[in-house]
């Protein structure tokens, strides 16, 4: 239960720099719960956000995001100083993660000595060394790798953190692939969220419509058979208003073995994104963002005509272990060869933080030297 999680982690918030948790829901007229947690001396962003179907859900979501960022800023991880060649000659598996090297930075050389951390590759169940620097989220330091929270996740247990991180990587990969191609193909994947006939999702839609806003939900599930959705939320009269700004249309995405839960995550994240701009408190958003016009491609998404969701299989995994097995099997079936997890938190803490790396999947736009991988290039060629 979310309240139990909060009770368990609350004594550790101050030590990890989290000074305040606040309810932001009332700053918007929708009423979908959104909370924030503040870490004034954070090594990355100061404000962490959380969303959910209830205040408890959203509050815990915000707190856990703040905790994972705090831990990732100073991970509790043992490292070794060595070269990739030395580790391999010693019989160790190595992944240099050159796909995440930052712009204008050099790839890791075979004979270059760096700090390595020992992670676990889940598909084979074997240990593997990765560059420690690739896991750090500390914007106060120079970093050779693209510094991102992508794949960073927390949970009550390590398995829960692993699942959240893997699902986020699958979601980000699906979003990149969904963006490749033409508007017609994207619009064809617009679905009516009421078609799920889920009371919780219906209640979210009712709140959005009552607030006078418009919603489009797109099924962006890729060849990896884990349901992924993205939700676009904007003014109800967007077709009649030529002056809609970039910040007035927000998006959210979600992935989960259950299509309904994936859709709920997407819709609640879109609502959370609105409050990001309304509150104006995120320190990673530049002032000029609020003056930028809405891109035409985003506006045209509201022209998509929703269809009923495809018939879904009646049974989905229910337990955490089943969710994890289902997700790993979906990756394995598409010949994804590595799912690497590095535990970052002190085992003595009553929660876990881990960073997940899946090199074969696409990454969101950021500061990496390699913008696209093989999956995106293949999709572009076939489109």
UniProtKB/TrEMBL annotation:
**Residue ranges of domain YcaO in the record:** 50-383
Could you tell me which Pfam families the record lists for this protein?
YcaO (PF02624)
Keyword annotations: Plasmid
Which top-rank group of organisms is this from? Answer: Bacteria
Q: NCBIfam families under this entry?
A: YcaO-type kinase domain
Name the chain's protein.
YcaO-like protein
């Amino acid at each position: 239960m979310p309240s139990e999680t909060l009770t368990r982690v609350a004594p550790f918030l101050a030590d990890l720099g989290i000074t305040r948790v606040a309810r932001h829901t009332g700053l918007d007229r929708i009423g979908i719960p959104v909370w924030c947690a503040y870490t004034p001396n954070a090594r990355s962003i100061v404000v962490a956000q959380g969303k959910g179907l209830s205040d408890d859900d959203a509050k815990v979501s915000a707190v856990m995001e703040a905790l994972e960022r705090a831990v990732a800023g100073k991970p509790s991880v043992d490292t070794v100083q060595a070269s990739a060649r030395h580790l391999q000659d010693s019989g160790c598996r190595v992944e240099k993660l050159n796909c995440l090297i930052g712009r204008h930075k050099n790839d890791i050389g075979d004979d270059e000595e760096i700090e390595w951390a020992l992670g676990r590759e889940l598909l084979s169940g074997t240990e593997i060394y990765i560059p420690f620097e690739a896991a750090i989220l500390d914007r106060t330091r120079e970093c050779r790798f693209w510094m991102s929270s992508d794949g960073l996740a927390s949970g009550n247990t390590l398995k829960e953190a692993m699942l959240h991180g893997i699902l986020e990587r699958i979601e980000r990969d699906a979003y990149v692939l969904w963006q490749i191609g033409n508007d017609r193909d994207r619009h064809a994947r617009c679905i009516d969220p009421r078609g799920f006939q889920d009371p919780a999702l219906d209640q979210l839609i009712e709140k959005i419509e009552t607030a006078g806003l418009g919603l489009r939900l797109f099924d962006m599930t890729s060849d990896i058979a884990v349901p992924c959705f993205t939700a676009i939320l904007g003014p109800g009269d967007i077709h009649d208003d030529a002056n809609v700004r970039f910040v007035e249309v927000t998006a959210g995405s979600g992935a989960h073995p259950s299509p309904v839960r994936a859709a709920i995550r997407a819709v609640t994240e879109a609502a959370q994104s609105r409050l990001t701009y309304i509150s104006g408190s995120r320190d990673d958003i530049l002032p000029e963002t609020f003056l930028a016009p809405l891109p035409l491609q985003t506006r045209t998404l509201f022209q998509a005509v929703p269809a009923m969701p495809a018939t879904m299989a009646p049974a989905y995994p229910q337990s955490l272990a089943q969710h994890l097995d289902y997700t790993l099997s979906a990756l394995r079936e598409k010949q994804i060869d590595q799912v690497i997890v590095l535990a970052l938190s002190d085992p003595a803490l009553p929660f876990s933080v881990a960073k997940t790396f899946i090199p074969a999947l696409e990454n969101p736009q950021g500061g990496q030297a390699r913008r696209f991988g093989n999956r995106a290039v293949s999709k572009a060629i076939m489109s």
